[in-house]
Design a protein that fits this description.
about 500 residues; alpha/beta; Aldehyde Dehydrogenase, Chain A, domain 1; 7-stranded mixed sheet; 6-stranded mixed sheet; 15 helices; globular
Length: about 500
């Protein structure tokens, strides 16, 4: 077992942390700082400069200068690809450092942070391959003697705002495609977890990214975040976070008519039919809700079970949940770390009490895991006898809490799954592949897993329906959010 992590294990550049603007470390204009807490210990890790409107403006100006500079605008796609690959290479060299910092600030198990860093590396490598493939095309025109073609051009300065559950990985989902097509970026990480974003800025500069192309401004959403969204010189906002904040961002961005993509909340249905491999489905249900402590926007937080399989499946899921090891996220074998903050812990515990008061039955967990340590630990909790109108069946809890409902047939399963304001993800477990595809086509969700859960790939688009947002991260389609199309007409008459 590794030694328990301490503040001394933070890289020196993060003690204290500062803003990263124009490839330089900088203090906040107002001199303010905020504390970053290790949630597994409920102890202060470090202090970080707190950016506000003045700092955001400084970062946006740096990004605008970089976007309009010959050094960036005339950089060949091949050279941009080399820089993205170099970012990935340096991160691979420092993988253990990035994973350790991620766990220190977020509380997730160390092995999960390693998975996050691996996907971040994959994302930069994937979009490095796209730099040379963003193409326009020729257009056959009905107007005589005219030649028409299109150009795909970078949209400009991108404001990227990312949450605290996957701080580094979700930053890469915005930063990598933006840089690949030639945009510049101001990244605003969550105030709970700004540290790996700052390390990303550092290694991007080391990899050869020109000054101003990637800037990192930690700060509060109500100050730094809103200033970024409202800034008239920001051309596009890429946001991952809550639906409530997403609505506010869309309203503010409309004032300056800037582009917006939103990846928001979820209440994803995990549908298990009676003909499924039940032990396999039970493991999938456990992974679907308890991976990442349930602090996953696509978490399978609603387990919908066909009536004949209900007793067996719920028993297996509850038994599995009770066996998950909770504790120090650096300890070998730990599967459930600390939720990100005391505020989040109290919110999750409040939902658990709400479930009890509304008549749901706790079959596993159900409270704070005080034995796990002084930090913000919540027991993996499974509710049974949940009805569709209960709060825990409708609202996003963002913690290790599973609500179990039953259904009678395929049509009821589809109706129950779609009875939600959200539509981010879903899963179907069955041995009947025809039924699986039938259900997948009728689910209102941006991602549907069949006989699996929580798989992601840089090449596979990710995003939501309904209140889960619009636009897509990852895959080729994400590039559309960072480019605009220009039509060019040429008169060929002699």
């Amino acid at each position: 077992m590794p030694d328990t992590a301490t503040t001394a294990e933070l890289p020196k550049v993060l003690s204290p942390g500062r803003l990263f603007i124009d490839n330089e470390w900088a203090d906040a204009a107002g001199g303010k700082t905020f504390e970053v807490v290790n949630p597994a210990r409920a102890e202060i890790l470090t202090e970080v400069a707190e950016g506000d409107q003045a700092d955001v403006d400084r970062a946006v100006q740096a990004a605008r200068r970089a976007f309009e500079s010959d050094e960036w605008r005339r950089m060949t796609p091949r050279k941009r690809a080399r820089i993205l690959l170099e970012i990935a290479r340096i991160m691979e060299e420092r993988k253990d450092e990035f994973a350790r910092v991620e766990t220190l600030q977020n509380g997730k198990p160390f092995f999960e942070s390693g998975i996050d860093v691996d996907m971040t590396i994959e994302t930069f490598e994937y979009y490095a391959g796209w730099t040379t493939k963003v193409e326009g095309g020729t257009v056959p025109l009905s107007v005589p003697h005219q030649f028409g073609y299109t150009l795909r051009e970078p949209v400009g300065v991108v404001g990227a705002i990312v949450p605290w559950n996957f701080p580094l990985n979700l930053a890469s989902w915005k930063v990598a495609p933006a840089l690949a097509v030639g945009c510049t970026v101001v990244l605003k990480p969550a105030s709970e977890t700004p540290l790996t974003a700052l390390l990303l800025g550092e290694i991007a500069a080391e990899a050869g990214l020109p000054a101003g192309v990637l800037n990192v401004v930690p700060g509060e959403g109500r100050t730094a975040g809103e200033a970024l969204v409202a800034h008239p010189d920001v051309d596009k906002i890429a946001f991952t976070g809550s639906t409530e904040v997403g609505r506010r961002i869309a309203r503010t961005a409309a004032e300056t008519v800037k582009r917006v993509t939103l990846e928001l909340g979820g209440k994803s249905p995990n549908i298990v039919f009676a003909d499924a491999d039940l032990p396999f489905a039970a493991k999938g249900a456990i992974n679907g809700i308890f991976y990442g402590k349930g602090e996953v926007c696509a978490a399978g937080s609603r387990l919908l079970v066909e009536q004949p399989a209900h007793d067996a499946l719920v028993s297996q899921v509850a038994d599995g949940a009770g066996k998950l090891k909770i504790g120090d996220p650096f300890e070998k074998g730990v599967r459930i770390g600390a939720v990100v903050s005391e505020k989040q812990m109290q919110s999750v515990l409040g939902y658990i009490e709400k479930g009890r008061s509304e008549g749901a039955k706790v079959v596993a967990g159900g409270g704070r895991a005080e034995h796990a340590g002084p930090g913000y630990f919540v027991q993996p909790t499974v509710f049974d006898e949940v009805t569709p109108g209960m709060t825990i069946a409708r609202e996003e809890i963002f913690g290790p809490v599973l609500a179990t409902l039953t259904f009678g047939d395929v049509d009821e399963a589809i109706a129950l799954a779609n009875d939600s304001p959200y539509g981010l993800a879903a899963a179907v477990w069955t041995r009947d592949i025809k039924k699986a595809h039938y259900v997948a086509q009728r689910l209102q969700a941006g991602t549907v897993w069949i006989n699996t859960y929580n798989l992601y790939d840089a090449a596979m688009p990710f995003g939501g329906y309904k209140a889960s947002g619009y636009g897509r991260d990852l895959g080729r389609v994400a590039l559309d959010g960072y480019t605009q199309t220009k039509s060019v007409w040429v008169d060929l008459r002699m």
